[in-house]
Amino acid sequence: MSMLQLAPTLDTANGRSVGLQRVVVALTVAVLFAGGGFLLHTEEQGQVIALLAAFVALFALGEKLPAGRRVAALCVAHPGTVNLTAAVMVLAIAAALREEHYTLLMMATVALFATAAAGLTLQMAFAGVPNFAGAAFFAVGSYVAAVLGTSGIPHLLVLVIAGLAAAVLGLLLLLPVLRTRGHYAALVTIAFGLLLRSFLEVNDVLGGPQGMKVPSFSLFGLSFSRVTEIGPYDVSFYLPYALAGCFLFALAFAVVRRLEFSFAGVALDAVRSDEVSASVFGLSIARWKATAFLMGNALIGVAGALYGMMNAFVNPNSANFGDSLIMLSILVLGGLGNLWGAVVASVVILVIPEKLQAIQEFRLVIFALLVIAILRFRPSGLMPRVTRDFSSFAKEG
Amino acid sequence: MDPGLLAQYVFNGLMLGTIYAIVAVGFSLFFGVLDVIKFSHGDVVTVGAFSAFGAAGLVAAAVTLPGPLALALGLLAALGAGAASGMLIGRVLVLPLKNAPAVNVLLATLMAGTVLREVIRLGVPNGGNPKPFPALLPEGVLAAGSFSVGIDSVIILVAGIAVVVATHLVITRTRLGLAIRAVAQDGEVAQLAGISFSRTVLGTFALGSMLAGLAGLMLGLYYREINFNMGVLLGIIGFACAVVGGLGSLIGPILGGFLFAGIQTGVTVVLPFTSAYKDVVAFAVIILLIGLFPTGLIAEKSSERV
Amino acid sequence: MSALLACNGLTMRFGGLTALDGVDIAVGKGETVGLVGPNGSGKTTFFNVLTGLYKPSSGAVRFAEADLFARSPQEIGRAGVARTFQRSRLMLDQTVFDNIAVGALGRLDLGLMTALVRRSRFRRQLSALVEQATALTRRFNPQIAANLFRPAGSFTMIDRRRIEICRALIGAPRLLLLDEPSAGMTHEETRQLMDDLLAFREEMPDLAIVLVEHEMDVIRRISDRCIVLNFGKKIFEGPFDALIADREVQTAYLGGGE
Amino acid sequence: MKMKKSLSALACAALTALTLQPSAGFAKDTVKIAFIGPLTGGNSATGLGGRNSAALAVDLHNAKPDAKYTYELVPFDDECKPNVGVQVATKAASDKSIIAGITHYCSAVAIATVETYNRFGLPVVVWGAVLPEITYGNDFKEIHRVNGTMINEGKMAAEFLTKQGFKTFVVIHDTTDYGKGQNKYFAENLKPQGGDIVATFAVSPDQQDFTAELTKVKELKPDVVFIGGLTPLGVRVRSQMDRLGIPAQLAGVSGIMSAGFIEGAGQAAEGTVSFHNGAPLTKYADGKAFMDAYTKAGYREDPDAYGPFAFSAANLVMDAIDKVGPDRKKVRDVLNTTKGYKALVGEVNFDDHRQNIVSANVYVAQDGKWVYWPDSAYAAGTKKLPGKTAGN
Questions:
Q1: DSSP character for D237?
Q2: pLDDT in tens, B42-72
Q3: Residues 6 or more apart whose Cβ sits within 8 Å of residue D128
Q4: Per-residue pLDDT tens for C40-97?
Q5: Does the residue B87 lie in any domain?
Q6: B280 and A332 in contact by Cβ < 8 A?
Q7: Are the beta carbons of C105 and A273 separated by less than 8 Å?
Q8: Of A218, C78, C137, D47, which alpha carbon lies 20 to 30 A from D62's?
Q9: What is the number of domains present in chain D?
Q10: Alpha carbon of D147: minimum distance to chain A alpha carbons (Å)
Q11: C1-80+174-258 architecture in CATH?
Q12: How much is the pTM?
């Protein structure tokens, strides 16, 4: 909150200091991404722990110190600089780690789960429609990729169809989801996830429990899994996946961002926070919940399709409740409605347990305690959603 | 169909339904007082089962106990451990988070469940493997034609139904019950009337979790096998029963429990060779029912003021 | 001239309870009607029926020549009926502007294409709305207008009430329903708010207002005509002075235990 | 302001990290081998038993005075989830310091990861997964397997059970590929032997209550209930059969042949028959030594049914590396041609699909232990299988 109250004072800054502000923002983002890239890559337990400590310290500084709060407020005030720096840093990290298969695989995984989290953001953070079956819709995307991937349909189109398929399947749930609220709607999605998984496993049409092989993603005839070099450089075949994943996330980010900063976004917030007053002011609750639910599932489906193509297989276990909870944890830990938070939380949830292989069978319990600690002491997530502020848009227009 | 077998199916369904109902009632109680879903509830069942197992097993290893004494010991352990873990989770996680979004509480308690589960798996020797639960009830079989049922099963079923009735009495006849109902109706007003909010909430958590611990003991006695994972699916099913029946009510979850058990048993009877689809059918029915009765079969009172 | 709003025999039953019992209420263009009555007499229920939140059991509702009986809240809202709530229903963590914008959403372009692709169109609408919101809030309190992009939760109770009224007014309604605007405020604050409303009233002579209020002082100052409900029935209709003198009203209040 | 602080924090971090790195300079080169299996979740008992056994093999090997290299076992948790499996497989395989792997118990994970190992050229020896396609479904030179497949088990089960005079069967299998596969190979082999499957129930692996299915079984009165699933399923079915008074013989695949089954089912386990493609520890020349060393090492978990295979796989891999040095390609070629290798689990001979040729053995639960059938009181005739006393 405090960072927002600083924002108006920043607006009065003159042109030259705006340039300086941008530099500060760019450097901050660059350092954060560099640290993140290093965290993805390093396997030394000491370095992992030191990096984590550094991140915690950095976050604490950003909140406790006035200077830190100022920098944080600057980042909020210059989203364009943040996004541009982030894009450059992602490319730089990808270039630097171009041969590191595992790091790139994790990078792509983080990007795709964050994309799915963007879908959940539309549903849960904006419209307030709970979705406890994220992994199920994700798996639907993968299955569509498996079925259509070899059919000769261009793979870009397959991604789109996967999104549509997930949305259409979501239609089945629309009526009960719209008629209910809160925990009742949550159960509808939980039941759907369990049902879908059980069905895929029992029924052999889509490969039964063994699942299906998914062909590698290919773009304009270039199969990603055959990429071994770009120009003079040897690269991992996961490099194009990592880039495609990040690109997909960027698209999802743009969609969610633009939606948030539009009257449709205001409508969604109104519907979520108070159905009664929203309907008195002429908003159709059903329309907005349905829009968010279907769009969200479509995003999750697209991300799932690319994930399936990267992993080269899909099976019913991909749709399990535990994975849906992982997606949900990403959303809540990151901060409902903040997509950068979702990226940070994806790293925390997907990468850190992998980095902690040294603690082996104790991983799960330590991980669970970590999540509990975050929920308990930071109930609004690592990076809470920043209050939407239309003032800058209004001025430009 | 052979009436004996039919009776057998009905008995199986009743047994399953009673266990579901006991778990579901806990969900409903918590929701009633605090509007939260405590998803670690299924794992509290496991805690109860393992505590009874541990208490009965450890003592039996030291001295030979007569059956009833070992049972009483197991019962105490299950109730105590259930209540303790429930109150701990309530105190440390749920109460401090009561103003956070519902999904946070859900996630936090799910993780608490994971912790309980993992602690059992790692803490109990060879905890990853299923454990045999000692037979603490009198053995013997009652048979009539092709219907046969263990005396212990009958005892468990009767005890289970008695527990459900007792819970109803606690809620309607005791001071704790009065406090629970008052807080469920309106926490602020209850506080004005001199009812301690947090004590009532913790009391509810203790009561609901004792039920879960008891369910754990019953599961152990009935199936004679317990494992660290047994609470996961049970938790989801209990939640489903509570929601379908109507969160916050007492009769609703019981109804939901028997309904769910009925569907599962029914599918196996009617379509024995596609019984793998029984979960698909059961969850499809759940979705359908929620679509038809958006606030549960026994609708909770809408208290929204405009 | 026919009335802007005409309710005839409006009845609302909840199970065995009759909350509104054959109520006839008519409101003309530009008229301000005070709706009074003891607690539970059906005032808020009347608002809820009128705005479509409750489906009335029987009767007729005509608004601006259209039949609004048992229509959805959305339809009624779009027809030009706006309201405030007894308990504040603002989005406290959102900015004042966003809250006020909710009141205008009915006439704005909410299409996804506009949101995602045609951003310049969105920007134009946004700028226009910011101007309107600034102008509107300035009439009530310049401080609100100056801090249009701060969270609504950071304002005082009276300013929140003003924001709520602005949210109801931004959609240019023809009928404004105010549900106990004085609730939770001091006498002084209530007086200020009434001054604001009266000043605003001058500029919008066609706007009809129905006001539910317990503070007789407020009713006296603002309303052209009073209606008294008791146990869901209309027991009085007339000017304020006559109301004070009416015996039935007095018994209702004494018996109702205000 | 913040920039400086964060940079210095990062510098600090880097420094700490550097100092934390283990100092190099051992007399012998250290060679890393990966162990991958389920260390958390429902199948962790077997996974941990496998990991302990592999770790024991490494420790014993390192303790040999003439050891060429110091081996380091790097354990990974695949959580029995295919996508996690691919992640850790990629991690292990793309780590060039890891020369070979001892991988997977869960078939679904093993089948999902074969391509990863092939692509990265990491030779692996599967220590527990029994799905035939893992070795027979591809021609990847990197994939080896010391344990047998479910084909052996199914065939042996069908032959043995029919030879014992059982005629009617009910199969209860879980809906994972493990259970479905076991069902398939058992059913395929049973027909030619003249056995008759009167009902097949596919159930969810985490299903707790089987009374509905078993009541149906009671109605059908089969001679044998055959389990295609893992220990938890076996324990539940066995205990609940008793509850409903079903006298049939229980037989199951290797998935139930664990200490957990005997412990879990308690008294009721007596007389249960299982088929496993290994011989009992005591039949192995070094079985007792293994068990002694395992006990001495003080692991918290039992080695379980597949521990000896993980132990053997680890030794096989280390001996191959000793022979040709830490070079993945060379190690792979040595492993490919393994013939007559003396391992804990007996002689290892790889066929053209690098599948160890093993024959399944029959076991019976007797007096709280899994007993090699030929040595059992049942084979000697002093005890009778429960299904026989009632059914036949």
A1: H
A2: 999 999 999 999 888 777 777 766 667 888 8
A3: D37, D46, D50, D104, D105, D147, D306, D309, D310
A4: 888 889 999 999 998 899 999 999 888 888 888 998 988 899 999 988 889 999 999 9
A5: yes
A6: no
A7: no
A8: D47
A9: 2
A10: 20
A11: 3-Layer(aba) Sandwich (3.40)
A12: 0.88
